[in-house]
Specification:
- The complex is a heterotrimer of chains A (100), B (183) and C (663).
- Chain A is built from three helices and no strands.
- By secondary structure, chain A is mainly α.
- Chain B is built from seven helices and two strands; from the N terminus they run αααααββαα.
- With 663 residues, chain C is mainly α.
- Chain C has helices at 2-26, 30-59, 98-121, 127-149, 153-171, 178-209, 214-223, 229-246, 255-258, 264-273, 278-285, 287-291, 294-315, 321-341, 345-372, 390-404, 410-427, 434-463, 471-476, 482-497, 515-520, 535-560, 567-575, 577-584, 589-635, 643-662; strands at residues 65-73, 90-96.
- Chain C has a two-stranded antiparallel ribbon with strand order 1-2.
- In chain C, helix 8 runs parallel beside helix 13 and helix 14 packs antiparallel against helix 18.
- Chain C is globular, with a radius of gyration of 29 Å.
- The chains are: A mainly alpha (100), B mainly alpha (183), C mainly alpha (663).
- Chains A and B meet through helix 1, helix 2 and helix 3 of A and helix 2, helix 3, helix 4, helix 5 and helix 6 of B.
Chain lengths: 100, 183, 663
């Protein structure tokens, strides 16, 4: 059968990609997408452990995570829209007003 | 042929994992945001497949419906909306690679090592456990439903309120300015 | 009944508060101030008389009445001190027994008279100053009454501190003059030194007895004196330290002469009749302690005796009339402590009683003179006032005769009682220190001579002969107005009459009519002696002290009146210049204190200020701020404003936590 640590490795790899994308991408939207990647990795983790332990709680929690991720994406994109209206750009580096 | 049959599940797993990881990498590496979004979509579908493999059918369905169907559509909308105006000024490049790569790799290494060390090569439990409700085999969706609406009712309701809040927030954020009103 | 007691305290307090808050700040007419002030002290007097009358009727003076006004420090369960004592609790209770009745009686009576006198004396002040004066005076009455009526050490201490405060306020009444303000400070600071001893005594008493209530402590000691053996001496000595400060004995007397900077009625009330006698009251109150603490009692007697003579010698060479009276007060207080130290607590309180009348009369009389002369206090510029100020003269003379201890006048009975008891203690070998008491008796007699001499010197310099001041002042001299003269008359009569309540055995030719002693017996009985001097011996003693006083009067009259006036004193001054200067400069005690105590203290304070506080403490705080600024300068570089940078930091932190949790 499929050993649990295979799932785990995949999950971590996705996490790493997500983190890298979070740090490396300059476009605000792509950064948000990387955050979704991270959340997905967490979900995969949950499900893997649910599978191993035979406990369905591990499948209920991702439901909540997905819900919250959706909400967060909505708000984040709303902020991006506002930012675009204000600055006519979505580059992260252009938001420097809090420099101190 | 025997090899295929004997290790069918694992092969499927490898395939789906590859799809997911390829999609993930695409998000990081692809320059155009639309490409990255589509890559992310592929990754989501791969993950959905992995969910099915792990006997989480309901979750796979949710993943496709909400993530692939809702969130990605939203992303694409906004990308179109914003980037059409932003034109081609965006230069995506990976110059400050080092810190991110270092941090990411460290994370990956630490966690992966930890995982392998902690879990060894344990196999999964019986799938029956994941589809049963109090002894009866009812299927994964019903089982999850029982858990969601009975044991985790309160978080469920709270998350519903959160969704409402997010909806209101998104509307406020997205609204156009009226005459004489500050942003 | 409680209401009556509360009224005794609250009437003057209310007067003080009204005059202080409204009269002093907002300002109202002198008439209103006078009414409020006289009401405050008058009501206290009437309430006191009523309370005493009721108490006498109910108990005939044999029991104590304890009235609890409110629960001050309630007992909290579980709050023990030292593990083996009961939870600490104190009530604000007042105690009316023979001792406090006597004190309350003359404090309110003399206090009221002095309030009346002050109405005349302080007329020259502004409305606000007038109100301020009476506010302080009423406040003093409140504090003093709390002191004498207190049923436990803590309530007494409240009053003790309160009178110290009012003394400071009143001495420094003319605070715009530096030397007056300084005198007020000196009084307060020196008092404080004594208060430190007093506090230690209270702590020790609580530790030993588990209570600070007088009745409880007395009962505990009576039940088993041996159990507290060493402690009683310590408590007695510490209490006496407090008395030394408050009652101006050696070595803490230095504030009293300086206190003459305050208005004269203040000197009369506070520094003659009431506040300074608080120490004697306290010793008498604690007589149970002292009679089982022989060494402490001896110290009391020795200090008292030495002070009596020491202060009297200084009084010989003073030229300011108030200073003469001040040193006289110090000296007489010494006599009171001498008596208490010989076990004659009743006699000591009796002297307090008579002293209140004649000393207040003397001070008020001197105030009358000063007022008439427009502020002159130097006796060298007085003289011949007898003809123009007859009432002042006669009352002053009567009071002086009382002070000198001439028979029939009150001072004779009280001073003689003390000297007789000291002699008896010497002969009866009290606690085995008989020889010391005999020496002290000799000192007492010497002091009596000096007292008579310097007081009559003052009388003659002021009232006899011819006026030595300038013409303009002489034209102004007049007898003081009625409001000032009537208290003088009353006190003068008192100086004669009050002595008769305490006529000793010898003076009464064997009859046992010493009402005062009997009255105080339940509360402050005299120490029993093994042998008593015979009646004949006592007559000899009386004769001796009276003749010694008479000698003093005669010499003073010879030296300071008539055609040869001032001749002998001048010759003494020129032939013994150094001795004269030594005495005239009060043995340079103030200068010694200044060099030995004040200056080192000032230097240490200065160092503590400049060195420790400014450099050390401020410096360390400033350094802390400085380093915080530097740290901030470094940390500023984190605030790049770049979102991705922040994201990096967040992830770095997350990685750290994750790694830490895994390991």
């Amino acid at each position: 059968m499929i050993p649990t640590h295979w799932y785990f490795v995949v999950s971590v790899a996705m996490l790493a990609c997500g983190v890298a994308g979070l740090l490396l991408r300059r476009n605000f939207i792509t950064v948000l997408m990387s955050v979704e990647l991270i959340l997905n990795a967490a979900n995969l983790n949950f499900v893997a452990f649910a599978r191993q332990l035979g406990d369905l709680t591990g499948q209920v929690f991702p439901v909540f995570v997905i819900t919250i991720a959706a909400a967060e994406a909505a708000i984040g994109l709303g902020i991006i829209v506002q930012l675009a209206r204000l600055k006519a750009t979505v580059a992260l580096d252009s938001v420097k007003e809090m420099r101190g | 042929m025997d090899f295929l049959v004997a290790h069918f599940a694992q092969l499927v797993f490898v395939f789906l994992a590859a799809v997911s990881l390829a999609g993930a990498l695409g998000v990081v590496l692809l320059r155009q945001p639309v490409h990255a979004a589509l890559s992310l979509l592929a990754s989501f579908l791969g993950v959905a497949g992995l969910f099915v493999l792990a006997h989480g059918e309901f979750l796979a369905a949710v993943q496709v419906l909400v993530y692939a169907g809702g969130v990605m559509v939203l992303f694409l909308f906004v990308i179109m909306f914003v980037n059409v105006r932003a034109a081609h000024k965006e230069q995506q490049y990976l110059r400050p690679l080092v810190p991110g790569a270092v941090v990411g790799s460290l994370l990956f290494a630490a966690l992966a090592l930890g995982a392998v060390w902690a879990l060894g090569g344990r196999a999964g439990a019986q799938p029956g456990a994941l589809t049963a409700v109090e002894g009866e085999q009812l299927g994964n969706t019903e089982a999850v439903a029982w858990l969601l609406y009975r044991d985790y009712l309160l978080p469920f309701e709270v998350v519903s309120v959160l969704l409402l809040v997010a909806m209101v927030g998104a509307i406020v954020l997205g609204a156009k300015k009226r005459e004489g009103e500050r942003a | 009944m409680d209401a009556l007691f509360a009224l005794i305290l609250l009437a003057p307090l209310a007067g003080a508060v009204s005059n202080g808050l409204i009269g002093n700040r907002h300002g109202w007419s002198k008439r209103v101030t006078t009414t409020v002030a006289l009401a405050g002290s008058g009501l206290a007097m009437l309430a006191a008389f009523a309370a005493i009358a009721r108490w006498l009727a109910a108990t005939k003076g044999h029991e104590a009445w304890v009235v609890t006004l409110f629960s001050w420090i309630p007992p909290l369960p579980g709050h023990t001190v030292g593990g083996f004592l009961a939870p600490f609790s104190v009530d604000f209770s007042l105690r009316l027994d023979a001792l406090s009745a006597v004190m309350v009686f003359f404090v309110t009576f003399v206090g009221f008279l002095i309030h009346v006198y002050s109405v005349g004396y302080m007329q020259g002040e502004s409305e606000r100053g007038y109100a301020r004066y009476f506010a302080y005076l009423n406040l003093f009455m409140f504090a003093m009454l709390t002191l004498v009526l207190g049923a436990n050490l803590l309530v007494l201490f409240v009053g003790w501190e309160g009178v110290g405060l009012c003394s400071y306020l009143l001495i420094g009444y003319y605070f715009t003059q530096d030397w007056c303000a300084a005198a007020g400070k000196k009084a307060f600071v020196v008092n404080r030194i004594g208060d430190f001893g007093f506090l230690l005594a209270i702590f020790l008493a609580y530790k030993v007895f588990g209570t600070v209530d007088f009745g409880a402590i007395a009962a505990a000691i009576e039940a088993d004196p041996g159990a507290y053996a060493g402690y009683l001496n310590a408590i007695g000595l510490l209490l006496f330290v407090g008395a030394v400060g408050k009652s101006a004995q050696l070595p803490l007397y230095v504030w009293l002469p300086d206190a003459m900077a305050g208005p004269t009625p203040v000197s009369a009330l506070i520094h003659a009749a009431t506040m300074v006698t608080a120490g004697v009251y306290m010793v008498a109150r604690a007589n149970v302690v002292y009679r089982h603490a022989p060494e402490a009692m001896l110290v009391v007697a020795v200090v008292g005796g030495l002070t009596a003579v020491f202060a009297a010698t200084i009084g010989l060479a003073q030229n300011d009339i108030k200073k003469v009276l001040a040193y006289s007060t110090v000296s007489q207080l010494g006599y009171m402590f001498l008596g208490a130290g010989a076990g004659a607590f009743g006699a000591a309180i009796f002297h307090v009683f008579t002293h209140a009348f004649f000393k207040a009369c003397l001070f008020l009389g001197s105030g009358s003179v000063i007022h008439a002369l427009g502020g002159e206090q130097d006796m060298r510029r007085m003289g011949g006032l007898r003809r123009v100020m007859p009432t002042t003269y006669w009352t002053f003379l009567v009071a002086t005769l009382a002070l000198a201890g001439i028979p029939v006048f009150s001072g004779f009975f009280s001073k003689d009682e003390i000297l007789g008891r000291v002699f008896a203690a010497g002969v009866g070998d009290l606690h085995g220190y008989g020889k010391v008491y005999l020496v002290l008796w000799v000192l007492g007699v010497v002091g009596a001579f000096l007292t008579a001499f310097y007081m009559f010197r003052a009388v003659h310099l002021t009232f006899s002969g011819s006026f030595r001041g300038d013409e303009a002042t002489w034209h102004h001299v007049h007898e003081s107005p009625g409001v000032m003269v009537w208290p003088l008359r009353i006190l003068g009569v008192g100086s004669v009459v009050v002595g008769f309540v305490g006529v000793g055995k010898a003076a009464s030719f064997g009859a046992d009519i010493n009402f005062f002693e009997h009255f105080l017996h339940p509360v402050a009985p005299a120490v029993e002696l093994a042998h008593h001097p015979s009646l004949a011996t006592e007559w000899v003693l009386i004769l001796l002290s009276v003749s010694v006083a008479g000698l003093g009067i005669y010499l003073a009259t010879r030296f300071y009146t008539g055609p040869q006036a001032m001749a002998v004193p001048q010759r003494i001054a020129t032939n013994f210049p150094r001795l004269y200067r030594l005495v005239a400069n009060k043995y340079y005690v103030d200068e010694i204190y200044d060099a030995a105590v004040v200056k080192p203290l000032a230097k240490t304070s200065y160092f503590a200020w400049k060195g420790v506080d400014t450099v050390g403490i401020d410096g360390s705080i400033n350094a802390l701020a400085f380093f915080t600024e530097i740290a901030g300068d470094f940390l500023r570089f984190l605030q790049t404003g770049n979102v991705r940078n922040y994201a990096l930091w967040v992830l770095a932190g997350a990685a750290f936590v994750a790694t830490w949790l895994l390991l």
